[in-house]
Give the backbone structure.
Amino acid sequence: MNGLSLQGLADKINNRITKQSLSKYELGHVIPDSEMIGILSEALGVRPDYFFSDQVLEIDIQGNDKLSLFTAKERTRIVEIAKDELGRYLELEQILGIETRFENPLSGISIQSFEDIDNVALRLREIWCLGTGPLSNVIELLEDHHVKVLEIESTEEFDGFSTWVNGKSIPLIVLNKAKLNDAPDRKRFTALHELAHLILEVNHLPEKEKFCHAFATAMLIPEERLRIELGGRRSKLSFHELAAIKQQYGISMQALVYRAKNLGLISDNYFRQFYAVFNQLGYRKNEPVAYEGAEHSNRFSQLLFRALAEDFISMSKAAALKNQELGEFRKENMVI
């Protein structure tokens, strides 16, 4: 999780124990005493409880196109951080007796066209009782439906990836905080794109990335709503109206224009003209108006304080689940 080699860890603890001895700990040939566990915990940024967890999580990264581009060291770091954060989350749900089983609401639906994508997006909105209006917080929405979403810092050039944990029992989406924290509209889009990889039968198709993009835009603004917002077929679009729709629906101006073209609301020729001007103005990377909605989940904290208030866990256990020292946890969180 810290990206350290054994020698790097030995250096970090000022060689109070050698690389060779650390290797024996790592392989399970020798058990460290309580003093050494304290030293290792401080050096690695984890609570001592971390070393006593018996939870086993298997994260499937075989054949993951995005992860395969990372260095082996970065792949391992991201997977281990995900295991640690997810393990504490699942333990908390288990303590509270919360059912975490995920059932794919779109299982068995064949995808052959972009029309199919629009239909399954509407179907998911119907099953999840979302209506056709703007989605206020995509990350929290996914977590409320048992899709785990983790945000991890990485220097790798990726927005997010998705995979399964423990076979097909837990869907997991990992988002790159380094790239998405200042772009909530992009974070929403990425999360829904990765959801498509998890629940749609498209990963075997050559158009899989285009289909996942289409699903994300269809979830963010259904066809019916975009037709209403634009007033039907258009010969021209205004930056100002696109900015207003972006702020309402939390979808980028670029994605809106692509969706308008794909739905036949603007011509291919006008789309090319519009995009050329958009590019010339430097708006591809920094659009003129930012989406200001909140895009994060408070579900873990909410469950943690429920468990604490109802005496399911002690203050010390709450701090451990939050991966904080007890004093730090007490200082940051007042519980009545």
